Each structure stands twice: as structure tokens, then as C-alpha cells.
Amino acid sequence: MNIQRVILSVIKMNLKAPFSTALGTLWEREGIIIQVADENGVIGLGEAVAFSTPWYTEETVKTCMHMLKDVLVPILLASPVHHPSELEDRFSAIRGNHMAKAGLETAVWDLYAKNQNKPLWEVIGGTQMIIPSGAVVGAHDLDTALIQMEAFVKQGYKRIKVKIKPGLDYKLIKALRSHYHDVPLMADANSAYTLKDLPLLEALDEFNLLMIEQPLAVDDIVQHRLVQRKLNTPVCLDESIVTLHDAESAIDLESCKVINIKIGRVGGLSNAIKIHDLCLQNGLEVWCGGMIEFGVSRAHNLVLSSLKGFKIPGDISASNRYWDEDIILPEVEVVNGNIHLSSKAGIGFELNHNRMAEVTTYEEEIRGS
Ligand SMILES: O=C(O)CCC(=O)c1ccccc1C(=O)O
Ligand SMILES: [Mg+2]
């Protein structure tokens, strides 16, 4: 592939409703849509999923724009790419900045698949074309959580995840469970607890949760082992798993039974696939995490979820879960709780240029020499 141009578009959209986690409330979202174009004008699409502020990881839209423009895009444009799997190595001179790397790398994967005239899910060896879909309740109080959960269950989502935090945990889960005895339900704490809260975490065992996600610190793998040993509920790690080595450590220590894989958090599709393969070999379950993303990242999440280890419904909801109108055509739709993969080349979605024009706040094109 001879990549000649990269277009970086910063976009901004209001969420349909505020989204609350243990770390705060989100009302609007910025993101970066990345287009890589080859000498024939074929375009690959990627999305850098960092937020405006570093509340989930240390990256932001601004750090990603800097890294892309000043560091990663020049590395990409410096020489031809034969296969997207080469990029991990090329970017390895740069530490961290996983979301910036993943945004660019996924765009190159899309371009590669389009050049092969094959769906990207087929290119990566995916076998599942029907992806079960889950939705996330992010409410600041119990009543709002119940209203959200009712709507998601009605819409057919196959698994509900609920954000918990001290003061909105045991009671919240108890209330949701008493209304919905059989709905696959799980909790995500986004690191809101410490080992002092073990009794509370153990008490959640009574609600038959699918799993509890990231109860302890963002960088912890060791203490989660103690939580997993005390709880019947499987522990799932999200923030703690940033590299393949982290996944190896968590497996060696038996710190969790499940890993939430996010392409952005782990630095790209290649690494996401490696973590999937490792988990599969070691009997851990995996599912695809979400980032309240726009359609391009949603499309890449669907591609990843086609791999055979992805059995549990992930945080991949319909475009209309968060957005009045998404930036892709067609939008991602959930039918009977499932999303059907496209058999079109690449990610199978195109940019909605009218919508892009409405929501773009900044755009820059970088050309190779
Ligand atoms: O994309 C979604 O639907 C929500 C997924 C979610 O919970 C989330 C969204 C943004 C940042 C972190 C997380 C998380 O999984 O912890
Ligand atoms: Mg999480």
C-alpha cells in the first residue's frame, strides 16, 4: 500500500442523554475520525477514541492530534506498508499513546481489506457474522438507572451492564435484579473501590452477575487476584490490561476470569487479536468493550467481535444508543439483540459526509512527499 494522504477530523456531538460513571458525567463527546488514502484514492477509516479530558486513560483528543500529526502519521507516510500488522513494530519506538496508534492502525486495516476487496472481518479470520449486542446503563441515580434498563431490555439488548460506584452499588444492583430476574446483568466499577471494600464486593455475589468489571485501581493486577479468590462472581479487567504482557500477568496470577478488549486501549487491532488469542488458549472469556464511540470505531469493534472467542455480548450498541445521527452510512442497527456484519469490503460502512460536515470542528490533511 502506498499511502499518500491522511485526513484528521475532530468532531463533536452531544450525547442524547448524559452518561455517568464512577469518574464523572459526560454530556458531549469529541473524537477524531482518520482517513488514510492511497495513490488510487481508496480510503481507509479509523477513529481515535480518546475523550476531551483524560478521565478514562491519560490520552485526550489534543494529545492524539499531536501524536498523530507530529509523530505517527510521518512514520506511516515514510515508507510503503505491505500489511497492517507491520505497524505495531513501526510504532514500537513510541511509548504508550495507544488510542492514537489504534486510530491510525485501524484505518490502515480498513484500507488493506478494501484493496483485497474483502470484508475486514474475513481478513482477520473472523467466523461470526451475527454479533450479540449489549447496552450500558450510566445513570446518576437509581430511578434513572431503572428507566434506562427498562428501555434497553425492551429494545432487545442481550446483556445489560450497569455502572456502579460507592453509594450507588448494592442497592442499585438489588433494585435492578428484583425487576429483572433473568436478564444477563453485570457491573462496571471503573476502579472505584479498594481492598477495604471486599465485603461490599462479596455481597454482590448474591445477584448472580455475569461479572464485575475493574473494581480496583486502573493499574492493578496483583490485588484483583485477591478479589477473584474471594468472589464467586467472575472478575473482568478493563483499564488494567493495556499490553499483551498485562494479559499474560493477569492470566499467570489468576487475577480475573474475563478480559474486556478495547482496540483503542490496547493500541490497535493487531494487539487486540493477540490478546484474544492468548485468552482463548488459556480459557479466559473475552468481550469487546465500548468507548461511547462514533460509527467508525463501532464498525471496527464489530470486526473484532467476529473472532470466535467473542461469545459474551459486548458494549457494542446501536448508533442510536448515543447519537441522534451517527457519522456512518448505514448506521449500526440492533435487530432482535444482534448486529449483522456486512459482507462489503473493509469495515462495510462509509462516512456520512453531510453529517461529518455538521459535526467537524477542525480538519487537517497531511500529505506524504
Ligand atoms: O460504549 C459504551 O456503551 C459504554 C462503555 C463503557 O462502559 C465505557 C465508556 C467509556 C469509557 C470507559 C468505559 C468502560 O468500559 O469502562
Ligand atoms: Mg470498563
What do these coordinates show?
The protein is of the alpha/beta class and 369 residues long. It has two domains: 3-118 and 350-367, Enolase-like, domain 1 (2-Layer Sandwich); 123-340, TIM Barrel (Alpha-Beta Barrel), CATH 3.20.20. 34% of the residues lie in helices and 23% in strands. The chain contains twelve helices and 15 strands. The chain has a seven-stranded parallel sheet. Strands 3-2-1-15 form a four-stranded antiparallel sheet, sandwiched between helices. Strands 4-13 form a two-stranded antiparallel sheet. Helix 5 (142-154) runs parallel beside helix 6 (170-179) and helix 9 (244-253) runs parallel beside helix 10 (269-281). The protein is globular and about 60 Å long. It starts with a strand and ends with a strand. The model has no long low-confidence stretch (mean pLDDT 97). The protein binds 2-succinylbenzoate and magnesium ion. 2-succinylbenzoate is lined by residues 56, 136, 188, 190, 238, 289-292, 315, 317.
